[in-house]
Amino acid sequence: DAGITQSPRHKVTETGTPVTLRCHQTENHRYMYWYRQDPGHGLRLIHYSYGVKDTDKGEVSDGYSVSRSKTEDFLLTLESATSSQTSVYFCAITPGLAGGHEQFFGPGTRLTVL
Amino acid sequence: GQQVMQIPQYQHVQEGEDFTTYCNSSTTLSNIQWYKQRPGGHPVFLIQLVKSGEVKKQKRLTFQFGEAKKNSSLHITATQTTDVGTYFCAGADTGTASKLTFGTGTRLQVTL
Questions:
Q1: A54 touching B, CB under 8 A?
Q2: Is the pLDDT of residue B77 over 90?
Q3: pLDDT of residue A101
Q4: Is residue B2 a part of any domain in this protein?
Q5: pLDDT in tens, A36-68
Q6: What is the pLDDT of residues B5-16, one digit of tens each?
Q7: Partners of residue B104 in chain A, C-beta under 8 Å
Q8: Confidence (pLDDT) at A75
Q9: Do B42 and A105 touch (CB under 8 A)?
Q10: What average pLDDT score do residues B68-82 get?
């Protein structure tokens, strides 16, 4: 699956604690994305990156920050987790081959905030 | 901002029946993509449509992009139990081809 891994795969945490999710890719793709998936909402973009240290906000970025200090890693941080951030988080990459913009997704991280 | 609506939310068919899901965008799209997500899995890319009026087929799946590049459809002929899952469309606004807005998805259930 395009060499994308996410860690941890499952996490339970308490309200107010910081949480960092990691997305790692092995193929040096430029574009990386973080989504959250909730029932009835499909996939919503949180943040994305178009290169090392180049990131931008998506439609649901409040309460989240990201960092990309290396091409292969894209970190998503919840500075102070809230119950509304209980969700499944997917990382994705775009290889951008031959003008295509298809995205390939990691296996997801299921986060529960108590 | 851009909105992508998808209908129906859920459809239950018997194996062998056809299935169609529709996707409508509030803005003109540069491209539209379709993804399938099996229960408990991650979204998997199916196809990308770029041209106005484009039609593409993958075995029993037929994808269409509207003339105005604001709507799309996925039609499955003679469904099989392996088609079970949620189908998402995802549209890219003109000028932001790598940033997608996903529809809410159509969950397909197929029974024998």
A1: no
A2: yes
A3: 82
A4: no
A5: 999 888 899 999 999 999 999 999 999 999 999
A6: 999 999 999 999
A7: 40-42
A8: 98
A9: yes
A10: 97
Is-contact B30 B90, C-beta < 8 A?
no
Tell me if B33 and A102 make a contact (CB, 8 A cut-off): yes
Segments forming the whole domain that contains residue B65: 7-111
Cα-based distances in Å from A108 to A4, B75, B98: 10, 28, 20
A-B CB pairs within 8 A amount to 52
Tokens of B96: 């932001």
Task: Residue B91: give its domain's CATH number.
Answer: 2.60.40.10
Q: Which amino acid is at A81?
A: A
A61 φψ region: left (φ > 0), alpha (ψ -120 to 50), beta (else): alpha
Which segments within chain A are labelled E, that is strand? 4-7, 10-13, 19-25, 31-38, 42-51, 54-57, 64-70, 73-78, 87-94, 104-105, 109-113
For B92-102, the pLDDT digits (tens) are 887 766 789 99
Count of structural domains within chain A: 1
CATH classification of the domain holding A39: 2.60.40.10
pLDDT of amino acid B62: 98
Domain contains B52:
yes
Residue B1 domain flag:
no
Picking from A18, A19, A93, the residue whose alpha carbon sits closest to that of residue A51 is A93
Nearest to B45 among A42, A48, A104 (CB): A104
B82: number of CA atoms within 13 Å, CB side?
A: 4
